[in-house]
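Page 47, continued from p. 46.
Same chain as before, 365 aa.
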Amino acid sequence: MLALPISIVVSLALAYVLARLLHGRRVAMPLAALLVACILQGVVNALAQYYGVAGFRPLQPVTAVTIPPLAFLALGAAQGRSRAGAALHLLAPAFVAFCVLTAPQAIDVAVVAIFAGYGAAMLVALRSGADALPEARLDAGEWPPLVWRALAASLIASALSDVAIALAVFLGEGWMKGWIVSFGTSLTLLLIGGLAASRSIGPPVAETTAGPVRPAGLDQGEAAAERQRDAAIMADLEQLLATQKLYRDGDLTLARLARRLGLPAKRVSEAINRRTGENVSRYVNGYRIADACAAIEAGQSVTDAMLGSGFATKSNFNREFRRVTGRAPTEWAARGPLVIGRSPGDAAARPPAHPARLTAVPDGN
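Result:
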């Protein structure tokens, strides 16, 4: 009976996922490279630990530390950062290769530092939430930053598994190394690869509300001018959404909205945040929910209204619908004659076609 080590099984599973994604053109190249690195590492681990091929043992740490830089570069691509200086990340595997050849005692420290360092750097890069991901589909809501944070946490978890390996060897329990590599490292590789293949961060490759923030250091006159610029951006954006109904496109991203306005994505995101107190995803979803409510009122089914308004998944549609209206879509459809209302005092924060609150009017009112 053919027996395969866990790391080979993980590599085969990730290879199958990658093939499906490439066939459907549903994976960005930086993420594809990350998946390839995870697949390669699983194979190297199996050859070194399970099959005992001595030549692959010194290769293990070198191939392992290609994963964190690739994950960081993939995040950079999702955030629209320049690829200038990307070659510098080759220093990580080069340094570990140098340690393998000249200072084997430093390998464990170097590997742990690289995995933990890149994981922490990714968390820092994601501190502004989905607004840091202009290429993320707006219908994905808060999932893209959550998936990227989980990927960063996986890198840190891998660093901890390397600490466990070093500790086991130090305590004279070297027999545990193979088990930690087989289970701990393989599980981490599977998690990293699975997260990299997530639809939430696939192409076209979304935001936490930080609250209205005014740029620091502005005097009263500059602040007033900034408010006027924000208002002008919002007026153009409202007109764009109202006339061209871009929100109905399920693949709409902050970057695409910004390109249509001829502005940097960060500038559009800041204007929306300061004027409405919301992130871009929630702001656009407000238009989508208003559109869905009008469709339901016109007699469409909830599913047709969901798809026609730009939502791709029922879970996100139901969550956003309840957030905006306070009701489930089916409850809304059962209310009878409906009108779209607005909360008092929200006129300055909401465009006319973008209700702050949707209310159902009972029959007979």
